[in-house]
Structure formats: C-alpha cells, structure tokens
Amino acid sequence: MAPASAPTDITLDSVSVYGFTAVPASASLLLSTTTSTAAPFIPVSEIPVPDTALSERIKRYAQSNLPVPTYNHSLRVYHYGFAIKKHLFPSWEFTDEAYFLTCLLHDIGSTEENITKTKLSFEFYGGLLALNVLQETSNTSAPEATAAPDLAESVAEAIIRHQDFRDEGKITAVGQLLQLATTWVDNVGAHTELVHSLTIEDISRHFPRRGWSRCFAATLRKETELKPWCHTTVLGEGASARVLGNKLMAPYE
C-alpha cells in the first residue's frame, strides 16, 4: 500500500487498485452485459478478509461505533459483494481491502449520534467521516494503518453515492458493487440471481440480521422526518416498505 504521504494525483494504477474504474451506474445495464450463469456457492470460509493494519484499525472503529445489526450488515455486504465480484466481475482489479473498508464504513453516518448531529444527508456525512477516519494519524504511530489519499477518496466516493441510483451515467466499480450488495441484495432482496441461496444462508448464519430490515426501515423514516430535504427522499415514499418487504431475507430476520 502507498504511504500516507502519497501524492493525491490519481494515477492509472490507483484507478484500478482502489476501484475508481468507471462502470455503468445502472445496475440493470451493467448486469445485462454479464454472462448469464448460475451463481456458485461461496461459503464464508472461502472469502478472505483483509488483515492489514489499516483494515484492523477500521474494523475496531466500526465495531466501536456501529450498532450490532449495522455492523453485521456491513460484513454481510462485504461477503455478498465478494461473491458477486468473483462470479460476475473478475476483471475488476481493485483490492479486497478497498471494498472491505468501504463496507465497514458505508453506514457510519446512519448511527443515532451521527444522524442527529448534522443537517447533511447520512451518506454524505458518512463519506466525510470515512475520509477523515481513514487518513487519521493521531491514534496510531504505524504509517501502514493510515490510508493513502486515493484509497480514502475511493471509499468516500462510494459511500456518498451508495443510494445514488441512476439509469444514466457512470459510477466507480467499488461504488457499484456496494450498491449491488447493500441495497439490491441485503436491503431489498432484488436481483436474486446474483448470490447463491446457500451463500446467503451461510453469510446470514455467520453475521445474523437481528431484525435488520426493521432497523434500516426505521432509519430511513427517521432521517426523512428529521431532514425532509435529505438524499434518502429520492428513494420515494415506499422505500421503507420495500425494505420491510424483503422476501429474500425474511427467513433470516
């Protein structure tokens, strides 16, 4: 990993390594370009979890600052995303760590403390928090536990846009994988072909939902009540109902 003092200019290498590769923002358009084969069963035991100093620091931060249902959701999203990438997008070259950090921090702005301390939409505030936490140096003397600027910015970009669903335009590869795993699979239960049913069962057993659908639906309602201007409103008035109606994950609630 590049040192914390690495230049902020995005190089060709950092585009692929940190997940800045531009892909269609439309999940349907993107998925229409993939080979239609059955998703394989990929158990949790076969999905590597980064054990770098940076990943360990951010994992401890997430455990300390996220409620258990949100923390478990973040880990499920990592494992679902890894399975999707391995099956459908093996050419995406970004590191497991880039995606792992994004998953751990993607809902940091939705906590009780953070959602009420700012007028910013939770994804935007979460992206800013992630950017700062990843580049933090005051709590560690190990340079390798601090993210390179390009890595931190890739994570922040994906978090800020993880509810930004569009039919046109582009998004980063990391951002698109986050959308596929978090919203389409774990939150709404759409695109059921992306992950094998046994993979879902195994991941849910390792990282229990603990009523996640109810938790997240309540968060969506709370934010729109507190901030009627927030970005969550683009999901429409039925957003909470769609989360609560997640039939794919209902057996694991």
UniProtKB/TrEMBL annotation:
<dbReference type="Pfam" id="PF01966">
    <property type="entry name" value="HD"/>
</dbReference>
<dbReference type="InterPro" id="IPR006674">
    <property type="entry name" value="HD_domain"/>
</dbReference>
<dbReference type="InterPro" id="IPR003607">
    <property type="entry name" value="HD/PDEase_dom"/>
</dbReference>
<dbReference type="InterPro" id="IPR017771">
    <property type="entry name" value="Cyanamide_hydratase_HD"/>
</dbReference>
<protein>
    <recommendedName>
        <fullName>HD domain-containing protein</fullName>
    </recommendedName>
</protein>
<feature type="domain" description="HD">
    <location>
        <begin position="70"/>
        <end position="181"/>
    </location>
</feature>
